[in-house]
Amino acid sequence: MILNADDYGISPSVSAAIRQLVKANLISSVSCMVIGTSALVELTKLRELGADVDVGLHLVLTNDPALSEKSKVKSITVASGHLYSFWKLFLRCHLRLVNAREVSRELKRQREVCREVFGQDPDFIDGHQHV
């Protein structure tokens, strides 16, 4: 059985709780978000544990600042560089206002960040809301 803890990196408190589960060997995998205000700090803490768990990339296309250069992901970000909210992204998709290359660019950048932090590709990739 695989027990996965989702949304690692979303906040320091969620990340700390997941690290406790990892330390206690109560979960076998962790889905990591690489965007957000505390994500990189929290990812480093998970990496430093050196635990024997699968580490996956949890893709994010809503709310947080995009990792890609703002000018290269215009169709999925507001003027500030933040990704659209779920409902605005949903509407833009249905109106065909989202550029698939820009989505691909942002998702690739998230994968690159995960690889940079952990020194390897993620063991798996997941996501929700926007999928």
Unreliable parts: none
Oligomer: single chain
Mean pLDDT: 93
Strand tally, please?
4
How many distinct helices?
4
Return Rg in Å.
Answer: 15 Å
Structural class designation: alpha/beta
Order of helices and strands: EHEHEHHE
Instruction: Describe the main β-sheet briefly.
Output: 4 strands, parallel
Helix content: 25-40%
Question: Can you offer a commentary on this structure?
Answer:
The chain is α/β, with parallel strands linked by helices and 131 residues long. It is built from 4 helices and 4 strands. A 4-stranded parallel sheet has the order 1-2-3-4. Strand 2, helix 2 (39-49) and strand 3 (54-58) form a beta-alpha-beta unit. Helix 1 (12-23) runs parallel beside helix 2. The radius of gyration is 15 Å and the shape is elongated.
Key phrases:
4-stranded parallel beta sheet, 131 residues
Q: What's the quick description here?
A:
This protein is an alpha/beta fold and 131 residues long. The protein has four helices and four strands. The protein has helices spanning 12-23, 39-49, 86-94, 100-118; strands at 4-8, 29-32, 54-58, 125-126.
Topology:
Blueprint: E1 4-8, H1 12-23, E2 29-32, H2 39-49, E3 54-58, H3 86-94, H4 100-118, E4 125-126
